[in-house]
């Protein structure tokens, strides 16, 4: 049964992708309907799969040498992420029905969205590193295609290519790690790597661990690869919600969580993970403080929240990180989609031009506030519980400085979240913007997500249950929702965090409104606009390569005599090299 | 080094090769380029005769030499034909002047 | 008789070549001219389709363990895994190109010469892959080269293609002189040119190792000119960009690879240097990848860009072979041969797709202009299939799944990492990073084609006939299918790799 379900989860969206694309752009209505239908079917299949969780592969096909066995394992980690990918995926597709109405080239849009949903499910379900990599790259391909969906906009194209190249660099890390593990173990099976990690020589194992960290950081837009995600905001908003908040960027977290038991003992690895998490969480929180573009602000906060998850893994809290990932996927998708409906309605992304929209768009305001409260970590919303869990793990298992910095991050988060909300929905309108009404499909998906934001934390026990029973290497203790509530409510970490969050809010209400609309201090805006100096590094690398390439063109002289000289010269060099090598 | 038959052929090969490669490096006129190529081919022909001789399989060396002559004549013919066309289209045979493709 | 089937694979195209030429010269009346063109195309297509029959029989014989060899006096032709691989590549691409060229070359002066030369080149390449004697190998090689000179310079009205043809001819001729010198060196030391004979002679008697090394260097550089090893590649961007598109596809897809096969065959007679060849191949491979990528990065002409990308793909293949030389791993050779095949499909598809755009946008409007990158803007509006095919081709070349290029590169990676040597591992990572770099010039092409505001050239474009789109569709499907089911090609890449290992006696 599980094997059929897995095939359906991947097959439905992929089949749908083909069909929607083949129908052609002349029938947009059919395209919308079919896209929603196929993504929903996939979502339903993955919900049913929850009942078939198992640590053993459900599908095992031999593909011959150098490709290994194609296996899919429906364990807790994989299925929970599959559910997120397909359910949030169907909501984003539903949202697109309104958002993308009247757009040209819908076939291409839905093809890539559906192709992505299937690939994302495949990525987490795959039990073979080759296929993990295979799906990993497909998600990068789709992400690139969707970021640069508006090909006429040079910013969109540049953003897409930037995302593609940076995540591909990460892909090289995954590739190298996977192959080193294959060279040592003779198998691509993830379970083999987890089970026999101690038989791999230390040097090779730390190589694998750190390459996977690079891969994860690039995919999840973590320091020092955090520069691509803000530029990826040129994508249509449902894409930002689906790929760049709720699913694809989680692939890095998934990778770290999946292989945590194998790398735990590698010296320096956990510290490096904590470092990456803390740095990302903090610097992007600062960047979100001064951002004026609504989607970019949300993107910064995504990187920052992903930083929390990375930090949690570094501190050993795989469960906490997965729980936060779950909450974050829901509330961030909600925030993005609401932002999308606002942007769709007013036609700009610049928060300085908005203001006072709450009165005209009460529905959007209400759901955005729900999302914002969860992001800020206000009690009873799902973001509160999961963030507290992370900070609790951090307090117990990570260095004090890291914990303190993360605490600071929580305060900053509260501050920038309220700044964002206030700038868009409250205050006096700064410009008269023409407002389009929000469509029904949009409202449905927003409503579902906001209910989720209220309630998904109640599923903690379930998540914990499937993780603890089906991951033999992770040693996760079973804990029910009630126990978690008790633990969190009485943990000192919670009270520290609440204190800091309140402090952040207090600061916002004291100075925030003035701060939000005034020019931020020059040093801060320079620092944040250059992504803390990493944007110039990117630009330097790009210009180095392209200038170098331009200079190198001089070597192709087009002159016959020089060409002959190259032949003769190469002959002499090869002769000399062979003689030298032969003499050794 | 004594001037035996073998050595004389060897010197011939080396000097023909030298002349040929030097010629290719400095010649600009396309007709001359084809001619210089033929000098190189002559060096090769001599080399086969030489190899046949030293390996005691002169018959094989000679038959190969004859084939090489035939085959490279075809190359020379094609080269000259192209040179003629170049002269027609560009109005010159000077190699650097016809070099428009670069970079 | 069954054993000789493979001879027909070589002779059918070679016999068809003069027949096609002569049939194209029949009559000069206006009425005849139009029909003559169809006759020529039809005959050429028939010939290549006929050549498939002996190929299929040869494959059957080969896979059931039958021996396929043929000799006239001391000239031997033998079919092994590598020959089959080359024959498969040449026939696949040859069929597609002949089909594609029908409308593309229609009405050109000397259409019959084009098909005659193309068929001759196809036959000669299959022959080259079967040659079992050093000198014989050179004869096939030279024959293939001469036919390709004429094809590159086919547009003799175009100064640029004459220039490209001339440079190609001179540099190739220098290469072939070097090869001959190498052959002469081997002859002087071994007294025979039969490949197995040389092996025996060299292992039996006291030979001058230095002379053999010298011969090896001459082979590497001599054939290397054809393979376009950097820095011997200088003819390639010119020739590939100026030839008719079908020929660009052939050159990039099979001709330079045939040169590589010839190089391997020639090197196989010199025993005991595998490590040296391995290091040499890997260094040249790395150089080719980097140089090809960097030069492609700033190109403004589409075909020239693809030509430089061929350089980097030859680099991947060299790297795979280098790993196989170095470690004796069959997997490396298999990966390299698989990449040989997928590169043929991907690059063939890319060049044919560009050709289709040139046909629709320029040739149909009586222009012989080159396709600039900016002309691609909005091409998807008018030519959705071509744009899709070209996108898939370049993304596959960039190594993105689920396309064929990913799987063949993966196989090379696996082989490289299995060597467990730090240098080789570093090279593999270098190769992977370069693969990422290549996306920096492939991806913008895709973005450009899917823009909504089309370029003037696209607006003025004419519709494309079936004969042009059909090959694109078929090759596109092949690229996708091989991405999902890479083991489909094992039946030919595995024997080819075994042949490789057998040739270098590990």
Q: State the order of secondary-structure elements of chain A, H for helix, E for strand.
A: HHEEHHHHHHHHHHHHHHHHHHHHHH
Report Rg of chain C. 22 Å
How much helicity do the residues of chain A have?
over 70%
Query: How many DSSP E strands of chain C?
Result: 2
Gyration radius of chain A, in Å: 25 Å
Q: If strands are numbered along the chain, what order do they take across the biggest sheet of chain A?
A: 1-2
Mean pLDDT of chain A: 87
Strand order of the largest sheet of chain C: 1-2
| Shape label of chain C | globular
Count the beta strands of chain A.
Answer: 2
Attribute tags:
heterotrimer, A: about 575 residues, mainly alpha, two-stranded antiparallel ribbon, 2 strands, about 75% helix, about 0% strand, globular, B: about 100 residues, Helix Hairpins, 4 helices, about 80% helix
What this model shows, in words?
The complex is a heterotrimer of chains A (584), B (103) and C (506). In chain A, 74% of the residues lie in helices and 1% in strands. Chain A is mainly alpha-helical and 584 residues long. Chain A has 2 domains: 2-532, no CATH class; 541-583, no CATH class. Chain A has a two-stranded antiparallel ribbon. In chain A, helix 12 (269-290) runs parallel beside helix 17. The longest helix of chain A has 32 residues, at 154-185. Chain B has a single domain (5-91), classed as Helix Hairpins, CATH 1.10.287. In chain B, 82% of the residues lie in helices and 0% in strands. Chain C has 506 residues and is mainly α. Chain C is 77% helix and 2% strand. Chain C has helices at residues 5-24, 30-63, 81-105, 111-130, 134-152, 159-190, 195-204, 209-227, 235-242, 245-268, 274-297, 302-327, 330-361, 379-382, 384-397, 404-418, 422-449, 456-459, 466-484, 490-503; strands at residues 69-72, 75-78. In chain C, strand 1 (69-72) and strand 2 (75-78) form a beta hairpin. Classes of the chains: A mainly alpha (584), B mainly alpha (103), C mainly alpha (506). Chains A and C meet through helix 5, helix 6, helix 23 and helix 24 of A and helix 6, helix 8, helix 9, helix 11 and helix 13 of C.
